[in-house]
Input
Amino acid sequence: MTIIDTHAHVYVQEFDSDLIEMLQRAKDSDIKKILMPAIDSETHNAMLSVEKLNSEFCYSMMGVHPCSIKENYKGELKIAWNFLEQRKFIAVGEIGLDFYWDKTYVKEQIAAFNEQIEWALHFDLPISIHSRDAMDECIQIVAEHQKGKLKGVFHCFSGNAEQAAKAINLGFYLGIGGVLTFKNSGLDKVIVDVPIGNIILETDAPYLAPVPYRGKRNEPAYLQNVIEKLSQIMGMSKEEIAEQTTTNAEKLFVC
Ligand SMILES: [Zn+2]
Output
């Protein structure tokens, strides 16, 4: 089987000591591509160097994470924009709204999200959306920009059935990872009714490791545990899950 991890921060310092071995474990676990969402200017160079050393395996997105939107956000946006003008990226991401950690910069987060969606439309790129305690707000902003051209994924989707239906109606994919394996996440009851054609796989490494690694550092190889759980929920074989979600990811990200 071949699998694409559509969201993994494999360039962060948690992987400094064993990056090469970790990427090899991913390859040994049928991962054929890793898509890396950007965070902010503190890590852009680390991401780009992992990509350079692992071309045809690790692919960079570009954007500013909502948790990095602070008083200096216009400078951060400028840096990301300059990168996007210089070369091709696979997506604008990760972008969105996070009202969980800090609500100081809600207005700025909304402005940055809107602006980066406009970039995606300008460059004809998909978006990778980070949404925490802000699903309805994210859906509304996407809807305002959706005139038939915007495409993307609600990364680490953790909404309810109604929100899933709205995201799908907007033509968006749901990014599914380790949370699906958590006891009492309730996500299984939402996902069972989602068409497999709207699901893509992701780890969000180094965060959100699936059971039985929950609480530990996550890495792309652990997608196998997510596939196992998804195959039980959907009543499909692991091979079918891998094939369908890989097809979806390639369609969305053109990678
Ligand atoms: Zn992320």
